[in-house]
Amino acid sequence: MTFQPPYRPSGRSVWLGKDLVQTDDWIVRLSPATLEEIAASVSRLRGRNAYDTPVKRDEFPLTTMADDLARMRQEIATGRGFFVFRGLDRDRYSDNELGLIFRGFGAHFGHDLTQSAFGDRLGDIRDISDILVDRSKRRGYQSGGFQTAHTDPSGEVGIVAMLSLKMSKSGGESLIASAHTVHNMLLDWCPDLLGEFYKGFVLRRPEADAERMGRSPLIGNVPSFCYENGWLNCDFQHGYMRRAVEHGDAAIGPKQEAAIGAFVSISNHPDVMLKMILKPGDFQFINNRTILHGRAQFEDHEVKDQRRHLYRLWLNVPEWPRMPVSQSTLVAADMARWDAMAAQHRAATPAWAAS
Predict the structure, then answer these.
(1) What is the pTM of this model?
(2) 5 within some domain
(3) Domain encompassing residue 183
(4) pLDDT digits over 15-54, tens only?
């Protein structure tokens, strides 16, 4: 019997990159009044380290765009699933000030989350593979090259946001695609392969992450699509699937391999994927449950301080339904362990060594 999913998404969450590239209504151009409001907040926050204390919503008012923010939050939740914000003058602000602005904006969309055992809530996306050579000890965002369409670990992470600080020599465009579009194309063209994603794939997290969480690297079987509480949630962690196979935790049969190949081909197809350059000062907010994101191949600068560099936020949105337990691969308890480990490290590090 042909597989029939419990739900077929429709409406604004189903879109093609080839259509959206013809429009710009997904780009929010910050008004002069908003830019002045931002500048005033930066002045009040001056002296604060962007990597440390979170910026609260009331510390970073956005009264000049209050009505628009409500619409944007809804659009990210149940509409197209993303926005790009443009208009910040990169030359006006230091990296630290841009970090404060980014965290201030983030506070209007959710609560920022710890992203690693270093306790970083403001993450750095930069290629340091020549410094941190051991692949098992670094994340995908700490390496260069192309990244296929994927979601970040699910559970607490509702929104993934990125702000551009520096661009590469060439390439490195941000790539995003609608997971709902991919779902429907699989349903129309190869429904039995779509069924494999509802059954799930065995995932394995990086060894370094597992050690710092105090958990096994083996996550277990996780469905890539799950319909619950009126939401069709996507969790597609391609690297975690392959890692499980490499370590002998699972074998991927011919049908599963065909399913993964179809998913990757569709989600990275130029008609499906929306390709955009994030110029310094631009920032992007995406729904981690409905939007797949990736990165185009790029040529970077040799000098570390000149390399392609973005800030990242992981945001939890309390108003959204909980992610299905079967897809919750990174939960609050894991992040609490990361925070505790980071606090222990800070306490054990002499002040002269931390500077």
Answers:
(1) 0.93
(2) no
(3) 11-354
(4) 999 999 999 999 999 999 999 999 999 999 999 999 998 9
